[in-house]
Amino acid sequence: MGRVWGLIALLMCFYRANALAAGFIKCPLSLTKIVSGWAELHCEVVGSPLPEVQWWFIEGHEPNETFTQLFDGARDDRVRVNATYLAHSTSTIHLTDLGLHDTGTYECRASNDPDRNELKKTPKIKWIRSQANVIVIERPNIIAEPFEVVNQTSAVLRCNLTETTLPVQGSHWLLNGKVLENSKSTEPTPFTSLSLDKITTHSGGKYECVFLTDPPVQQAVEVKTPPHVVAYKHSENGDENDKILLTCVSHGYPLPSDWSWSKTQADGSLVPIVNNTAEKYEIKSTPNKTTLAITALSIELDKGEYVCTGISDLGATSDRIQLRVRSRLAAVWPFLGIVVEVIILVTIIFIYEKRRKPDEIQDDDDSGSAPLKSNSDTNHKEKNVRQRNSN
After folding, report:
1. Interatomic CA distance for residues 163 and 169, integer angstroms
2. Could you tell me which residues come within 8 angstroms of residue 239 by beta carbon, excluding any fewer than 6 positions away?
């Protein structure tokens, strides 16, 4: 029995020798936020064994302050707590849809005492704590003029920050969430403006004036333009019994909320195309794009003009696509034409060679008699020379 107690004491000494008290390596920072905004606090702790991390909310002042532990999903699911325990302990608390009642002190607690959560025992190692203040203030009033621009060719957007004590360190404008570089200003003034000399379908969108306060505040101004619908290709060619995809896209703000397809008849009237009609037509649409898939193409039924139409709050615009359907033999005709040309060429060469052969034989006979005549003349001359010598 004494050996057992000795072994336990040895293990306890080994545990204490390797234990390391918890300590913060990153503490949460105080924040000032706007009503309806969000806030995020983060802390990191080292220790051996790895410390447990908790978040608490402190209300009131000493000695009447109250402590409330914050779990994931607290405050009507407006609180999110994420923790990891790897090389060291990390924890992040995320607060959404902030209200004035969320103002207060938030505390990150950590401990690696095995008895840290025992209510009947006094912990040997106290929880270490790090606090940060979250101050939620009313949203400053920003007067935007005009509040909305609808179907205009030019405009000047203005914003004026009023009724605030927050110091301004500059301003800029956003278009659909992206900073307009030429709008940046470091002037500490609560007023900013943006000139739109020419409003097109590409310049419409959601503009926001941003004042660089702590925290930053902003106000949106919508610049709306009619939808601009364009066919991806105005002429399409398909083969009989194959499948083809017709595509239209849209620019502008707001984008179309609805799309439709139709086919032009011989008398100029339009017949709507219904999605999944007899498994032949399939329409897929997003706010900025629509596609019409046609299966089992038919020369008689499917060739012709198709119309895509985008509809938004500011009206409807459309574009047209001409579809041509070719026979499956259409690709064979060029090859057959080449074959016929080769056959004709070979025939011409063959006929020419056949007619040329008798003439060549006659020419060869004529050229063979000339040397014989030349030899006869030579022999005759030699005979006359011999007769003169004998005389």
Report:
1. 16
2. 297, 325, 326, 327, 328, 330, 331
pLDDT-based confidence at 180, cuts 50/70/90? very high
Q: What is the C-alpha to C-alpha distance for residues 316 and 255, in angstroms, rounded to an integer?
A: 11
Cis peptide before 334, with omega less than 30 degrees from 0? Answer: no
Q: Which residues pair with 53 in a beta bridge?
A: 110
CA distance 136 to 38: 10
pTM here is: 0.65
Instruction: Name residue 145's beta-bridge partners.
Output: 158
- Count the neighbouring beta carbons within 10 Å of the beta carbon of residue 28: 22
Query: 264-293: per-residue pLDDT in tens?
Result: 998 989 999 988 776 789 999 999 999 999
Work out the widest C-alpha separation in the chain, in whole angstroms.
Answer: 172
Helices (H), the chain: 2-18, 74-77, 299-302, 332-390
C-alpha to C-alpha distances, 153 to 47, 136, 173, 195, nearest whole angstrom? 64, 41, 20, 12
Beta bridge partners of 40: 94
The whole-number pLDDT of residue 124 equals 60
Q: Which residue has the higher pLDDT, 391 or 104?
A: 104
Between CA 89 and CA 86 the distance in angstroms is: 7
